[in-house]
Amino acid sequence: MTSTRVALSRRVVLQNGLASGLVLAFQWPLHAAPVNEPEQPPDQPDGQFAPNAFIRIDNAGKTTLVIPQAEMGQGVYTAIAMILAEELDADFAQIVIKHAPASDRLYANPLFGIQVTGNSNSIRSFWDKLREAGAAARAMLIAAAAAQWQVDAASCSASNGKVAHDVSNRTLTFGELADAAGKLPVPDKPKLKDPKDFTLIGKPLKRHDTPDKSDGKTIYGIDAMVPDMKFATLAQCPVLGGKVKHVDDSAAKKLPGVRQVVVLDNLVAVVGDHMWAAWQGLDALKVTWDEGPNAKINSADIWNDLRAASKKDGVVAKSEGDIDKGLTQGERFDADYELPFLAHACLEPQNCTVRLTPGACEIWTGTQVQSRCQEYAAKAAGLPNDKVTVYNHYIGGGFGRRLEPDMVESAVRIAKEVPTPIKVVWTREEDMQHDVYRPAYRDTISASLSNGKIVAWKYRVTGSSVMARWIPPAFKNGIDPDAVDSAVDMPYDIPNKHIEYVRVEPPAVTTGFWRGVGPNNNVFAVESFMDELARKANMDPVAFRLGMLDGTPRLKAALKLVAEKSGWGSLLPGRVGRGVCAQPSFGSFIATVVEAEVDDVGGVHLLRVTCAVDTGIAVNPDTIVAQLQGGLIFGLTAALWGEVTIEKGRVQQSNFNNYRMLRIDETPPIDVHVIKSAERPGGIGETGATAGPPALRNAIYAATGVPLRRLPIDRAAIAVKKA
Amino acid sequence: MTFSINVNGTEHNVDVDGGTPLLWVLRDVLGMTGTKYGCGIAQCGACTVHIDGNPVRSCLLPVGAIGNRAVTTIEGISATGAGAKVQKAWLDHEVIQCGYCQSGQIMAAAALLAKNPHPDDDDINAAMAGNICRCGTYVRIREAIKSAAGDGVRRAS
Predict the structure, then answer these.
(1) What CATH number is given for A300-341+437-718 in this structure?
(2) Which range, of A44-53, A66-75, A170-179, A575-584, averages the lowest pLDDT?
(3) What pairs with residue A171 in β-bridges?
(4) Model confidence over A361-413: pLDDT tens digits?
(5) Which residue in A has a C-alpha nearest to residue B23's C-alpha?
(6) Which domains does chain B have, with CATH numbers?
(7) Is the Cβ of B8 closer than 8 Å to some Cβ of chain A?
(8) ipTM higher than 0.85?
(9) N or C: which end of chain A has fewer CB within 10 A?
(10) Structurally, what CATH architecture does the domain formed by A221-292+350-425 represent?
């Protein structure tokens, strides 16, 4: 990484020096140059040997891997590089990594057909494609060596960036073979390694991106620096969906460092010499807003709508057996669960840097959707897509927020009014109050119990459809596949099952994907109700689940392991409880136990978390552990405090003082046990976020006997004394 | 107005209003982008720098209030003994995920270890609770601080 960065920076300085003339506003230090400057279009790669979009090997043997997915902390740059290098037999220590440019043709996620990093599927969807890419390149390098030596290719082997012919004791490096290999045809069906021969995959490898992140060198979108650039910050109407009516900028324009005020239909922006000047200018604007139709919307109204809608029949997503008959067999129980709107609160606020030149637009940002940003920027700039270059960056937290291009679109619209390149940075308040929010959901469940088993299960999800807005073709026949994910495929052996979805869109609030996506809601409702049913059946919650998991043996094994590792069943002090969650989500099988104490005033103290995971082949096992630790904290944070509320059309939460995050002093030890598996890799980034809330809710149930049906946790409901 | 500030041992003259927070002088005027903006109200710690060795939230520190005190940022912390140990431990324990908060985490941890070479859990909580990590790396931050202090169990990987 270091060598790439230095080399790129040098080129940037050269190019920028030519492009921007002699006088710069400031002397940008080397490291502040954009990390990925204009480079060759993807179909004219700079390597001598470029068998596909992912691999480039030059004559010196430098092996560059272009990573189609975005790195937002989940370790995907390292994991994808490991898969490519494994099949390529590259020298892993010598590879360099590049962000992919915007190109659906070359870098589309096979699952979505466009460039997307999300839904925990980078490794799942690219697994075959990347292995084949690496294996094809290896086969070509071996063929080139065999031809040069005039031996049978089958008698040659590759390892550590070299091809060897052991019989004659000859070797050639990949660099020496690059030219010749580049002239050979790309094999259609290259032979893949037997997983037992993997030398990289399955080993805990050090991440590629962390050394630069430990000394401040990594360039995030918010750190992009373009010569002659000015800084801008913006405000949208505090009432969601409102417009600008009138702006008095007389005071703002008098402030030192304020250069320009930009007024668009739905936002105002101030351009300054630095962010602080722009921000001071923004605060000094007197804006009159046309608050529009949402000015009277309150959270209570939205919940009333949601609750009313949840009483209607939904569209059937799945039905097995005879649900009406099943519900009459055994004893019937009913419950409703509710989850609130949530903000993403990525620590890197939304930002985008734009340079418009005649006929071209350049975008510096960190995004999970490179090609969609290109498309939105092009539309805003009035240019064809291919005149927009997107330089993607390391992302300071994605969690679904950066699946949206709104920050790019607004930055380009502002840039059209400004003579210099600009960096638009949102304040934290703007970021939190103009997010796309995790939908509020209501889940209605009925089940019948007989002899310690569930006979029938009727489940209705009511909430906004993110898919219908975000990827309309995926919303078919009234079903949002994300909204019912982990509900239609719940793991328990139940003879009569019926799953419905009711779509209801809230006024004012735009909803979006949030770490854990649909399963966030469904795993919470399913696993909470499972605990309530276990209690009705007078059974231990783990034993109750184990009795219905014969059809999902990998989850059953994970549940047994977590029970053993967490000390499940051992005695605990009063008001301390253990809660369990079992989930087969995102292609991984995860069982989690949270141990928590509830104090007399309803304060919740996390004591310990234990997790067992079968994610198939664990490409980089240490990353699996890290993702679960972090995902659990993400989910537990939401369970403990997360809720976005609307009052008069305005989001009430604004910053970390009123939208609480878990902190280190509240974080318990988290032990993650990775089960060895030869199955295809599953997804992992979302899973901890879905596991934490139900496990904590069930721990509180065990500690207090109170069956919470809503998040965040209601302290008053579990207090012994009034606070 | 022009101010002279000493950052990582180098004097810089900056021409800004004295009320401008140090964070924006570092990032936007000096181009030292390792120090991050997260909240602007001293709630998240992403902007933590050292002033004469003490951890300070640069988002609220006016540049005019610094005077001749020494500013140390993430770009210069490896030159301090505690800083280098913390950075190494951070990599040994593979603490970092997205990394956006980690400049601030490392600065807070380095300040802690410089004053208290063997912090216990309560000391770590007190020193680090002001730094939010949205990726949730706290378990490893704790391990890494103990390891940097020579008090932890080293990880095999």
Answers:
(1) 3.30.365.10
(2) A44-53
(3) A164
(4) 999 999 999 999 999 999 999 999 999 999 999 999 999 999 999 999 999 99
(5) A276
(6) 2-76 (3.10.20.30), 77-148 (1.10.150.120)
(7) no
(8) yes
(9) C
(10) 2-Layer Sandwich (3.30)
| Contact partners, residue A194, CB within 8 Å, separation at least 6 | none
The one-letter code for the residue type at A331 is E
Interatomic CA distance for residues A72 and B45, integer angstroms: 20
Domains in chain A: boundaries: 2-213, 221-292+350-425, 300-341+437-718
Tell me the residues of chain A between 7 and 26 that have a Cβ less than 8 Å away from chain B. 26
Portion of chain A with pLDDT greater than 90, in percent? 91
pLDDT tens digits, A219-277: 999 999 999 999 999 999 999 999 999 999 999 999 999 999 999 999 999 999 999 99
| Digit-coded pLDDT (tens) for A502-559 | 999 999 999 999 999 999 999 999 999 999 999 999 999 999 999 999 999 999 999 9
Instruction: Report the pLDDT value the prediction gives residue A23, as an integer from 0 to 100.
Output: 27
Could you tell me if A605 lies within 8 Å of chain B, comparing CB atoms? no
Domain A2-213 has CATH 3.40.50.720: no
Instruction: Look up residue A261 and give its two tokens.
Output: 């005020």
Which of B97, B106, B140 to mutate against chain A (most A CBs within 10 Å)? B97
The residue of chain B with its CA nearest to that of A659 is B43
pTM equals 0.94
Instruction: Give A667 to chain B, closest Cα distance, Å.
Output: 7
What is the distance between the alpha carbons of residues A349 and A432, in angstroms, rounded to a whole number? Answer: 9
Answer yes or no: do B129 and A222 touch at CB < 8 A: no
Chain A hits for B126, Cβ within 8 Å:
665
Residue of A159, A224, A141, A149 whose CA lies nearest to A198: A159
Q: Which residues contact A264 (CB under 8 A, 6 or more apart)?
A: A244, A410, A413, A414, A417
Residues 258-317 in A contacting B (C-alpha not used; CB under 8 Å): 273-277
A193 in Cβ contact with A87 (< 8 Å): yes
